[in-house]
Design a protein that fits this description.
It is built from 12 helices and 19 strands. By secondary structure, it is an alpha/beta fold. The protein is globular, with a radius of gyration of 21 Å. The protein binds zinc ion.
Protein backbone atom coordinates (compact mmCIF):
# COMPACT_ATOMS: atom_id res chain seq x y z
CA UNK A 1 0.00 0.00 0.00
CA UNK A 2 2.52 2.58 1.12
CA UNK A 3 5.17 1.59 -1.39
CA UNK A 4 2.78 2.14 -4.30
CA UNK A 5 3.13 5.62 -5.71
CA UNK A 6 4.23 8.82 -4.10
CA UNK A 7 3.22 9.59 -0.54
CA UNK A 8 0.70 12.35 -1.06
CA UNK A 9 -0.74 12.52 2.42
CA UNK A 10 -4.04 11.86 0.71
CA UNK A 11 -5.99 8.76 1.63
CA UNK A 12 -9.36 7.20 1.16
CA UNK A 13 -10.26 4.61 3.78
CA UNK A 14 -12.95 2.38 2.31
CA UNK A 15 -15.72 0.72 4.27
CA UNK A 16 -14.64 1.36 7.86
CA UNK A 17 -17.32 1.63 10.55
CA UNK A 18 -16.92 4.99 12.35
CA UNK A 19 -17.56 4.41 16.08
CA UNK A 20 -18.83 0.94 15.18
CA UNK A 21 -21.71 2.30 13.08
CA UNK A 22 -22.59 1.82 9.43
CA UNK A 23 -19.74 1.41 6.89
CA UNK A 24 -18.45 4.66 5.41
CA UNK A 25 -15.52 6.00 3.45
CA UNK A 26 -13.16 8.42 5.16
CA UNK A 27 -11.10 10.81 3.03
CA UNK A 28 -7.96 12.52 4.25
CA UNK A 29 -5.95 15.38 2.75
CA UNK A 30 -3.52 17.92 4.20
CA UNK A 31 -3.47 16.18 7.60
CA UNK A 32 -7.22 16.58 8.08
CA UNK A 33 -10.36 14.53 7.55
CA UNK A 34 -12.05 15.99 4.47
CA UNK A 35 -15.04 13.70 4.11
CA UNK A 36 -16.83 10.89 5.88
CA UNK A 37 -19.82 8.98 4.56
CA UNK A 38 -20.87 6.31 2.09
CA UNK A 39 -19.07 6.64 -1.25
CA UNK A 40 -17.04 9.72 -0.34
CA UNK A 41 -15.07 11.08 -3.29
CA UNK A 42 -11.39 10.29 -3.08
CA UNK A 43 -9.06 13.28 -3.29
CA UNK A 44 -6.91 13.23 -6.46
CA UNK A 45 -3.92 10.90 -6.13
CA UNK A 46 -5.22 9.37 -2.90
CA UNK A 47 -3.92 6.04 -1.67
CA UNK A 48 -6.67 3.55 -0.94
CA UNK A 49 -6.95 1.51 2.25
CA UNK A 50 -9.56 -1.25 2.31
CA UNK A 51 -10.98 -1.19 5.84
CA UNK A 52 -14.04 -3.41 5.44
CA UNK A 53 -15.01 -4.86 8.81
CA UNK A 54 -12.79 -2.49 10.76
CA UNK A 55 -14.00 -0.01 13.34
CA UNK A 56 -12.71 3.56 13.03
CA UNK A 57 -12.09 5.47 16.24
CA UNK A 58 -10.42 8.81 16.86
CA UNK A 59 -6.75 8.38 17.77
CA UNK A 60 -6.43 7.25 21.39
CA UNK A 61 -4.92 9.56 24.00
CA UNK A 62 -3.11 8.25 27.08
CA UNK A 63 -2.95 10.46 30.16
CA UNK A 64 -0.46 8.23 31.95
CA UNK A 65 2.58 6.73 30.22
CA UNK A 66 6.04 6.09 31.65
CA UNK A 67 8.47 6.47 28.74
CA UNK A 68 11.52 6.15 31.07
CA UNK A 69 13.74 8.45 28.97
CA UNK A 70 15.85 10.19 30.14
CA UNK A 71 17.54 7.87 32.62
CA UNK A 72 16.19 4.35 32.19
CA UNK A 73 16.69 3.72 28.50
CA UNK A 74 17.26 0.04 29.37
CA UNK A 75 13.52 -0.15 30.21
CA UNK A 76 12.10 2.06 27.45
CA UNK A 77 13.03 4.95 25.21
CA UNK A 78 10.86 7.65 23.73
CA UNK A 79 11.37 5.90 20.37
CA UNK A 80 10.27 2.42 21.58
CA UNK A 81 7.55 3.66 23.91
CA UNK A 82 5.89 5.88 21.33
CA UNK A 83 6.09 3.15 18.70
CA UNK A 84 4.34 0.86 21.20
CA UNK A 85 1.75 3.59 21.65
CA UNK A 86 1.11 3.86 17.90
CA UNK A 87 0.76 0.08 17.65
CA UNK A 88 -1.85 0.31 20.42
CA UNK A 89 -3.82 2.93 18.47
CA UNK A 90 -2.59 6.00 20.37
CA UNK A 91 -1.85 9.31 18.68
CA UNK A 92 -0.84 11.10 21.89
CA UNK A 93 0.63 10.13 25.24
CA UNK A 94 1.36 12.10 28.39
CA UNK A 95 4.86 11.23 29.57
CA UNK A 96 5.09 10.98 33.36
CA UNK A 97 7.71 13.04 35.15
CA UNK A 98 9.52 10.36 37.19
CA UNK A 99 12.49 10.17 34.85
CA UNK A 100 16.18 10.69 35.75
CA UNK A 101 16.62 13.64 35.76
CA UNK A 102 13.09 14.30 36.92
CA UNK A 103 10.95 16.37 34.52
CA UNK A 104 10.72 19.28 36.97
CA UNK A 105 12.18 22.07 34.81
CA UNK A 106 11.43 23.73 31.49
CA UNK A 107 14.67 22.22 30.16
CA UNK A 108 13.86 18.58 30.86
CA UNK A 109 10.23 18.83 29.74
CA UNK A 110 11.34 20.52 26.51
CA UNK A 111 13.91 17.78 25.93
CA UNK A 112 11.23 15.09 26.26
CA UNK A 113 8.87 17.02 24.00
CA UNK A 114 11.58 17.44 21.33
CA UNK A 115 12.55 13.74 21.46
CA UNK A 116 8.88 12.87 21.00
CA UNK A 117 8.62 15.12 17.95
CA UNK A 118 11.79 13.60 16.49
CA UNK A 119 10.49 10.03 16.97
CA UNK A 120 7.27 10.98 15.19
CA UNK A 121 5.13 7.98 16.18
CA UNK A 122 2.68 9.96 18.31
CA UNK A 123 2.49 13.29 20.11
CA UNK A 124 4.38 13.31 23.42
CA UNK A 125 3.02 15.73 25.98
CA UNK A 126 5.34 15.94 28.99
CA UNK A 127 3.84 15.96 32.48
CA UNK A 128 5.74 18.20 34.89
CA UNK A 129 6.66 17.18 38.43
CA UNK A 130 4.76 18.81 41.29
CA UNK A 131 7.78 18.92 43.59
CA UNK A 132 11.48 19.40 42.86
CA UNK A 133 13.08 15.99 42.25
CA UNK A 134 9.79 14.35 43.34
CA UNK A 135 11.12 15.13 46.80
CA UNK A 136 7.77 16.11 48.23
CA UNK A 137 9.07 19.24 49.94
CA UNK A 138 9.40 22.13 47.46
CA UNK A 139 7.11 23.02 44.53
CA UNK A 140 8.68 22.82 41.07
CA UNK A 141 8.59 25.83 38.75
CA UNK A 142 5.21 25.27 37.15
CA UNK A 143 5.18 28.60 35.36
CA UNK A 144 8.45 27.99 33.52
CA UNK A 145 7.26 24.55 32.40
CA UNK A 146 3.88 25.96 31.34
CA UNK A 147 5.57 28.74 29.31
CA UNK A 148 8.14 26.40 27.71
CA UNK A 149 7.86 24.88 24.23
CA UNK A 150 6.42 21.79 25.95
CA UNK A 151 3.42 23.86 27.20
CA UNK A 152 3.01 21.69 30.30
CA UNK A 153 -0.52 21.72 31.78
CA UNK A 154 -0.61 18.49 33.79
CA UNK A 155 1.59 18.17 36.88
CA UNK A 156 2.15 14.98 38.85
CA UNK A 157 4.66 13.35 41.18
CA UNK A 158 3.24 10.01 40.00
CA UNK A 159 4.98 7.05 41.52
CA UNK A 160 4.82 9.08 44.70
CA UNK A 161 1.92 10.76 46.44
CA UNK A 162 1.93 14.47 47.21
CA UNK A 163 1.10 13.59 50.80
CA UNK A 164 1.71 17.02 52.40
CA UNK A 165 -1.67 18.77 52.47
CA UNK A 166 -0.16 22.26 52.43
CA UNK A 167 1.97 21.50 49.37
CA UNK A 168 -1.05 19.98 47.64
CA UNK A 169 -3.10 23.08 48.38
CA UNK A 170 -0.36 25.37 47.02
CA UNK A 171 0.04 23.24 43.91
CA UNK A 172 -3.70 23.41 43.21
CA UNK A 173 -3.62 27.19 43.69
CA UNK A 174 -0.57 27.61 41.46
CA UNK A 175 -1.98 25.82 38.37
CA UNK A 176 -5.18 27.88 38.34
CA UNK A 177 -3.31 30.75 36.67
CA UNK A 178 -2.92 28.79 33.40
CA UNK A 179 -5.79 26.29 33.63
CA UNK A 180 -3.51 23.46 34.72
CA UNK A 181 -4.40 20.29 36.60
CA UNK A 182 -2.72 18.35 39.40
CA UNK A 183 -2.76 14.58 38.80
CA UNK A 184 -2.48 12.81 42.13
CA UNK A 185 -1.07 9.35 42.80
CA UNK A 186 -3.26 8.72 45.85
CA UNK A 187 -1.30 6.64 48.34
CA UNK A 188 -1.05 7.59 52.00
CA UNK A 189 2.60 6.71 52.63
CA UNK A 190 2.42 5.67 56.28
CA UNK A 191 -0.56 3.37 55.70
CA UNK A 192 1.32 1.56 52.92
CA UNK A 193 4.77 1.16 54.45
CA UNK A 194 6.13 -2.23 53.38
CA UNK A 195 2.90 -3.07 51.59
CA UNK A 196 3.15 -5.85 49.01
CA UNK A 197 -0.39 -6.35 47.71
CA UNK A 198 -4.02 -5.44 48.35
CA UNK A 199 -5.04 -5.86 52.00
CA UNK A 200 -7.79 -8.44 52.19
CA UNK A 201 -8.55 -12.13 52.25
CA UNK A 202 -5.86 -12.95 49.67
CA UNK A 203 -3.08 -11.07 51.52
CA UNK A 204 -4.08 -12.80 54.76
CA UNK A 205 -3.84 -16.20 53.11
CA UNK A 206 -0.52 -15.44 51.40
CA UNK A 207 1.03 -13.78 54.46
CA UNK A 208 2.00 -10.64 52.54
CA UNK A 209 1.77 -7.16 54.06
CA UNK A 210 -1.49 -5.58 52.96
CA UNK A 211 -2.12 -2.29 51.19
CA UNK A 212 -5.45 -1.08 52.51
CA UNK A 213 -8.04 0.56 50.27
CA UNK A 214 -8.32 3.37 52.82
CA UNK A 215 -4.75 4.48 52.00
CA UNK A 216 -6.01 5.47 48.54
CA UNK A 217 -9.46 6.64 49.57
CA UNK A 218 -8.30 8.94 52.38
CA UNK A 219 -6.00 10.89 50.03
CA UNK A 220 -8.69 11.13 47.33
CA UNK A 221 -11.21 12.45 49.85
CA UNK A 222 -8.75 15.02 51.21
CA UNK A 223 -7.75 16.20 47.74
CA UNK A 224 -11.34 16.49 46.49
CA UNK A 225 -12.00 18.76 49.48
CA UNK A 226 -8.84 20.76 48.79
CA UNK A 227 -9.71 21.14 45.09
CA UNK A 228 -13.16 22.39 46.05
CA UNK A 229 -11.74 24.78 48.64
CA UNK A 230 -9.28 26.25 46.15
CA UNK A 231 -11.59 26.02 43.12
CA UNK A 232 -8.96 24.21 41.10
CA UNK A 233 -8.76 21.11 38.87
CA UNK A 234 -7.76 17.76 40.35
CA UNK A 235 -7.24 14.55 38.41
CA UNK A 236 -7.03 11.21 40.23
CA UNK A 237 -4.61 8.71 38.70
CA UNK A 238 -5.35 4.97 38.50
CA UNK A 239 -8.42 4.68 40.74
CA UNK A 240 -8.48 1.12 42.07
CA UNK A 241 -11.11 0.70 44.80
CA UNK A 242 -14.90 0.74 45.07
CA UNK A 243 -14.64 3.26 47.91
CA UNK A 244 -12.62 5.65 45.74
CA UNK A 245 -15.40 5.52 43.16
CA UNK A 246 -17.96 6.51 45.80
CA UNK A 247 -15.89 9.51 46.88
CA UNK A 248 -15.37 10.70 43.29
CA UNK A 249 -19.09 10.26 42.56
CA UNK A 250 -19.86 12.44 45.60
CA UNK A 251 -17.29 15.10 44.60
CA UNK A 252 -18.71 15.28 41.07
CA UNK A 253 -22.26 15.57 42.43
CA UNK A 254 -21.08 18.75 44.17
CA UNK A 255 -19.90 20.17 40.85
CA UNK A 256 -16.25 20.12 41.88
CA UNK A 257 -13.54 20.01 39.20
CA UNK A 258 -12.48 16.42 39.79
CA UNK A 259 -11.67 13.89 37.07
CA UNK A 260 -10.39 10.33 37.31
CA UNK A 261 -8.82 7.52 35.32
CA UNK A 262 -8.74 3.73 35.57
CA UNK A 263 -6.13 1.41 34.09
CA UNK A 264 -6.93 -1.53 31.81
CA UNK A 265 -5.36 -3.95 34.31
CA UNK A 266 -7.58 -2.75 37.15
CA UNK A 267 -10.59 -3.39 34.88
CA UNK A 268 -9.66 -7.02 34.26
CA UNK A 269 -7.31 -8.53 36.87
CA UNK A 270 -7.74 -9.25 40.60
CA UNK A 271 -5.52 -9.84 43.64
CA UNK A 272 -6.13 -13.60 43.44
CA UNK A 273 -3.42 -13.63 40.74
CA UNK A 274 -0.81 -12.76 43.39
CA UNK A 275 -1.10 -16.35 44.68
CA UNK A 276 1.25 -17.27 41.82
CA UNK A 277 3.91 -14.98 43.35
CA UNK A 278 4.69 -13.96 39.77
CA UNK A 279 5.95 -10.36 40.04
CA UNK A 280 4.33 -9.55 36.68
CA UNK A 281 1.23 -8.99 38.84
CA UNK A 282 2.98 -6.57 41.20
CA UNK A 283 1.74 -3.07 40.55
CA UNK A 284 1.05 0.24 42.31
CA UNK A 285 -1.80 0.61 43.20
CA UNK A 286 -2.19 -3.13 43.66
CA UNK A 287 -4.68 -5.40 41.93
CA UNK A 288 -7.83 -5.41 44.04
CA UNK A 289 -10.86 -7.68 44.57
CA UNK A 290 -13.57 -8.77 42.10
CA UNK A 291 -15.98 -6.36 43.85
CA UNK A 292 -13.57 -3.48 43.19
CA UNK A 293 -13.25 -4.51 39.53
CA UNK A 294 -17.04 -4.54 39.18
CA UNK A 295 -17.31 -1.07 40.75
CA UNK A 296 -14.58 0.33 38.47
CA UNK A 297 -16.30 -1.04 35.36
CA UNK A 298 -19.62 0.43 36.43
CA UNK A 299 -17.97 3.81 37.17
CA UNK A 300 -16.28 3.93 33.77
CA UNK A 301 -19.60 3.05 32.12
CA UNK A 302 -21.61 5.74 33.96
CA UNK A 303 -18.87 8.39 33.55
CA UNK A 304 -17.91 8.71 37.23
CA UNK A 305 -14.47 7.63 36.04
CA UNK A 306 -13.76 9.82 33.02
CA UNK A 307 -11.24 7.81 31.12
CA UNK A 308 -8.92 4.85 30.69
CA UNK A 309 -5.20 5.53 31.16
CA UNK A 310 -2.60 2.82 30.74
CA UNK A 311 -0.02 3.56 33.47
CA UNK A 312 2.32 1.80 31.01
CA UNK A 313 5.28 1.06 33.31
CA UNK A 314 8.03 -0.85 31.54
CA UNK A 315 10.75 -2.58 33.57
CA UNK A 316 13.75 -4.62 32.41
CA UNK A 317 13.82 -8.33 33.21
CA UNK A 318 16.34 -7.97 36.06
CA UNK A 319 14.03 -5.57 37.94
CA UNK A 320 10.90 -7.65 37.41
CA UNK A 321 11.76 -11.34 37.19
CA UNK A 322 13.02 -11.63 40.72
CA UNK A 323 11.41 -12.51 44.05
CA UNK A 324 8.10 -10.81 44.81
CA UNK A 325 9.30 -8.68 47.72
CA UNK A 326 12.04 -6.89 45.77
CA UNK A 327 10.50 -6.81 42.27
CA UNK A 328 9.60 -3.43 40.77
CA UNK A 329 5.97 -2.27 40.62
CA UNK A 330 4.42 -1.86 37.20
CA UNK A 331 3.04 -3.36 34.02
CA UNK A 332 3.28 -2.51 30.35
CA UNK A 333 -0.03 -1.60 28.75
CA UNK A 334 0.08 0.54 25.61
CA UNK A 335 -0.12 -2.33 23.14
CA UNK A 336 -2.97 -4.14 24.91
CA UNK A 337 -5.14 -1.29 26.26
CA UNK A 338 -7.83 -1.25 23.58
CA UNK A 339 -8.02 -5.04 23.53
CA UNK A 340 -8.47 -5.18 27.31
CA UNK A 341 -11.14 -2.48 27.16
CA UNK A 342 -12.98 -4.48 24.52
CA UNK A 343 -12.80 -7.60 26.72
CA UNK A 344 -13.79 -5.88 29.97
CA UNK A 345 -16.20 -3.20 28.75
CA UNK A 346 -17.46 -3.75 25.20
CA UNK A 347 -17.90 -7.51 25.01
CA UNK A 348 -19.63 -7.35 28.41
CA UNK A 349 -22.15 -4.81 27.06
CA UNK A 350 -21.04 -2.01 29.41
CA UNK A 351 -19.73 0.38 26.72
CA UNK A 352 -20.44 0.94 23.03
CA UNK A 353 -17.68 2.01 20.67
CA UNK A 354 -18.78 5.66 20.70
CA UNK A 355 -18.30 5.62 24.46
CA UNK A 356 -14.93 3.92 24.09
CA UNK A 357 -13.93 6.85 21.85
CA UNK A 358 -15.12 9.21 24.58
CA UNK A 359 -13.27 7.43 27.40
CA UNK A 360 -10.03 6.78 25.48
CA UNK A 361 -9.76 9.84 23.22
CA UNK A 362 -12.05 12.84 23.79
CA UNK A 363 -12.01 12.94 27.59
CA UNK A 364 -8.31 12.28 28.15
CA UNK A 365 -7.49 14.92 25.52
CA UNK A 366 -9.73 17.40 27.33
CA UNK A 367 -8.28 16.59 30.75
CA UNK A 368 -4.75 16.87 29.32
CA UNK A 369 -5.55 20.17 27.56
CA UNK A 370 -4.50 18.77 24.15
CA UNK A 371 -6.16 20.94 21.51
CA UNK A 372 -5.35 18.90 18.41
CA UNK A 373 -6.30 15.49 19.83
CA UNK A 374 -9.54 13.79 20.83
CA UNK A 375 -11.52 15.50 18.08
CA UNK A 376 -14.57 13.77 16.57
CA UNK A 377 -14.31 11.80 13.33
CA UNK A 378 -15.68 14.60 11.17
CA UNK A 379 -14.60 16.82 8.26
CA UNK A 380 -12.17 19.45 9.46
CA UNK A 381 -10.82 17.39 12.36
CA UNK A 382 -7.11 16.52 12.37
CA UNK A 383 -6.78 13.08 10.75
CA UNK A 384 -5.88 11.25 13.95
CA UNK A 385 -7.59 7.88 13.88
CA UNK A 386 -7.24 4.18 14.51
CA UNK A 387 -8.66 1.28 12.50
CA UNK A 388 -9.38 -1.71 14.70
CA UNK A 389 -10.51 -5.25 14.00
CA UNK A 390 -12.71 -6.37 16.92
CA UNK A 391 -13.41 -9.82 15.45
CA UNK A 392 -10.03 -11.52 15.84
CA UNK A 393 -8.88 -13.22 19.03
CA UNK A 394 -5.28 -14.08 19.83
CA UNK A 395 -2.99 -14.76 22.76
CA UNK A 396 -0.95 -11.77 23.90
CA UNK A 397 2.73 -12.29 23.12
CA UNK A 398 4.99 -9.63 24.66
CA UNK A 399 7.89 -10.87 22.49
CA UNK A 400 6.12 -9.24 19.53
CA UNK A 401 5.68 -5.89 21.31
CA UNK A 402 7.61 -2.79 20.34
CA UNK A 403 8.07 -1.83 23.98
CA UNK A 404 11.61 -2.50 25.15
CA UNK A 405 10.19 -4.29 28.21
CA UNK A 406 8.19 -7.49 28.44
CA UNK A 407 6.31 -7.14 31.74
CA UNK A 408 2.76 -7.58 30.41
CA UNK A 409 0.34 -9.19 32.88
CA UNK A 410 -1.74 -10.25 29.88
CA UNK A 411 0.99 -12.47 28.40
CA UNK A 412 -0.56 -15.71 27.19
CA UNK A 413 -4.10 -14.45 27.75
CA UNK A 414 -6.41 -14.73 24.75
CA UNK A 415 -7.90 -11.29 24.09
CA UNK A 416 -10.05 -9.88 21.31
CA UNK A 417 -8.99 -7.27 18.81
CA UNK A 418 -6.12 -6.00 16.74
CA UNK A 419 -5.07 -2.46 15.83
CA UNK A 420 -4.70 -2.57 12.04
CA UNK A 421 -3.78 1.04 11.28
CA UNK A 422 -3.10 4.30 13.10
CA UNK A 423 -2.97 7.72 11.44
CA UNK A 424 -1.30 10.77 12.98
CA UNK A 425 -2.40 13.97 11.20
CA UNK A 426 -3.01 12.04 8.00
CA UNK A 427 0.25 10.10 8.06
CA UNK A 428 0.10 6.38 8.84
CA UNK A 429 2.22 5.35 11.83
CA UNK A 430 0.87 1.78 11.69
CA UNK A 431 -0.34 -0.16 8.65
CA UNK A 432 -1.41 -3.82 8.47
CA UNK A 433 -0.72 -4.05 12.20
CA UNK A 434 2.97 -3.15 11.70
CA UNK A 435 4.98 0.06 12.01
CA UNK A 436 4.35 2.03 8.81
ZN1 LIG B 1 1.00 6.10 39.95
Amino acid sequence: MTGAGPVTGRWVIRGARPLGGEPADITIADAAITGIGPGATAPPGAQVLDAAGLIALPGLVDLHTHLREPGREDAETIETGTLAAALGGFTAVHAMANTDPVADTAGVTEQIWRLGRAAGHCDVQPVGAVTVGLGGSRLAEFGAMADSAARVRVFSDDGRCVSDAVLMRRALEYVKAFDGVIAQHAQEPRLTEGAQMNEGAASGRLGLTGWPAVAEEAVIARDCLLAAHVGSALHICHVSTAGSVEIIRWAKSKGWRVTAEVTPHHLLLTDELVASYDPVYKVNPPLRTPADVAALREALADGTIDCVATDHAPHPVEDKETEWAVAAHGMTGLETALRVVQEAMVDTGLLGWAQVADRMSARPAAIGRLAGQGQPLAPGSPANLVLYDPAVRAAVDPATHASRSRNSPFAGMVLPGQVVATFLRGRPTVLAGKPA
